[in-house]
Amino acid sequence: MTKKVVVGLMLIVIIYSIPAMAQANAPFSIEANNLTMDQAEGMVRANGQVKVEFSTRTLLADEIEIDLNTKDVLAIGNVTYIETNKKLQGKRLLYNYQTEEGTFFNTEGNFHERGGVPQNFAGEKIKMVNGDFELKKATLTSCQNPDAHYRLVARKATIYPGDKLIAKDVEVWLGDYHIFTYPVYKRSLGEDETPLPSFGYNNHDGAYMEWEYEHYINEDLEGDIDLKLASKDTDKARLDYEYDITDQIELNPIFDYDKDRENTWYTKLIFDGDFANGLNLDFDLKYDKKEENDSDKIMGDIQVSQKIDKFYWEVEQDYNKELDPDADKNWNYDPQLTLGMFNNAIGGSNLITNLRYRNGDILFKDDEEINRQDVRVDLWNDDYELSQGLTLDTDTTLWHAWYDTDDDYSAYKLGFDLEQELRAVTDIEFGYDYIYETGEPPLAFGSGFEDFDDFDDDRDLAPHNTDLGWRNYYDLLFDGHWIVIDMDHMLKWQLEGHRREYETGESYDYYGYETKYRYFLTDEWLVNLNYERKKESGNNPPIGSDNEAVKNEFNFGLDYENKFNKGGYLHLDSNVEYDVFDNEYTTISLDSEYRTKEENLAYWSVESYIEYDLLTDGYEEQDLELKRVYDCMEFIVTVDLMTDGEKKDSVEFEYEIKY
């Protein structure tokens, strides 16, 4: 044990044994070549390779003074402050170990969020406040190379680790070139974003430039500005701001311009307010200016709701939604009242229930107005463990709707899913659903609400003609695990079967199986063999969505991967597909990636994908991506010649900074 450690331990004993300072109970240990203590003043002084360890922080310096009364620390000379994923270095530090706040002078440092890129920064003065860093005359970069490829130089910056960076009067530099200056600059950390515009070319837009800017004004008001300028008059602009009037009330104004759209521009205002006793008010107003629209009507909706424990009510009124091409419905509530109970646990069981009653007038495009009332009850549970590895999901729905047209409609669903996880060989899943429909909704609603967007969540209940009555669905799946035959051979399999039964007397069966085989020829070469067979029998199902596509395909692949000793990388993945039914080859593809050796924290990367359709004698896919990757940024050129058999001739140039 060194002398300084022994002296340090003795000092700890002394500090904790002084009655006058018992209230301090300084939560640190200290090591140094020289240690002195003034009991009258309550001061600890140390010099020579000083190391102070707090609970989660470490401080290194040439000299340190600690005031046990005020909890202030003064560190001078070669100061290093270390905590989890963060490290700061400077000439002088004033720090309070109780509030964990302080000020660094002439400082540089870095922090490294989990899974992110290390961020380097420097400043004339850095304040540590509530775990954040406030920098003056700051330089920020994620480049590890001393000759940074990019840097942001700001008059003032605040770093919120794991969240965001906000800086003022920010100069953007690429190498030795000053590109331009932002008055305010905000970026989310952990995301690859760029402070510079991106450029590209494609058949639709021609040559274009895109720019995204997070316009930060203050903590309560900020927005996103997205701009696109194109040579073929497909310009776009969008301003989307959020204003927090209070912690519970938010205003969201939007302006959207798209020269390539029929409704060239629109403005929108969204209000979301939460008030006392669970009361909420939302409204959404939109003015949509079409080139040939003389109505100039305001579109939108207003919702007032309240939640009290598990119960809620809501009133919704729509305005001219049928005129909005971007709306998810072309009809209006005029208005509608909803009463309900949500996520209510039954007793001590895993069963959860929702209950909903609605009564409202619904106005359609042709000015037809129909009053509808409906009641829906849902009862379900998820992942109920019957035994080790055996889980049960249940789902029951009862739904009845009636209308002032003297029509009525009901749907009932009862279903469950069993899943048995087995460590050996396979997992087993079995599912059953019983669905029964009766009655008929008004024609304006479509058959079984098929064309009524309000019931997206109910289409599994009523997507079809109600003359079908009841139907049963049986599903069984054996999902085999990978079987390691030996060091070079692996096998996986899957078997499935499905049956559909209808009250009309019709039935439909569908089954299939799939095998995957891997053979490692060498450390670099891998053979992939896949076979998939899907077959149907019985009548064609009366419900089109119940029908499944038949398959009988064999896929042969050859995969090559080599990580060169000098640091390069090559990966080739080729595949040939053969249709057993038609006794012919269908497609051939090649996926490749080549990466050069990394030098000075940078490398080149080339990726390409080609797919050729042997039946049509033409290319389906032709893509190429060229990258220059640095430790802190990337230059990317993407060439898309063909997508889904359609000629694209698109070239995009991107530049990304890693935060």
UniProtKB/TrEMBL annotation:
The stretch of residues making up the signal peptide is 1-22
Keywords, sorted A to Z: Signal
Query: What Gene3D superfamilies does the entry give?
Result: Lipopolysaccharide (LPS) transport protein A like domain
Cytoplasm among keywords: no
Gene Ontology, cellular component aspect:
cell outer membrane; transporter complex
Q: Which InterPro entries match?
A: LptD
Entry keyword annotation includes Protein biosynthesis? no
Q: Do you know which PANTHER family this protein is assigned to?
A: LPS-ASSEMBLY PROTEIN, LPS-ASSEMBLY PROTEIN LPTD
Name used for this protein in its record: LPS-assembly protein
Organism, scientific name: Selenihalanaerobacter shriftii
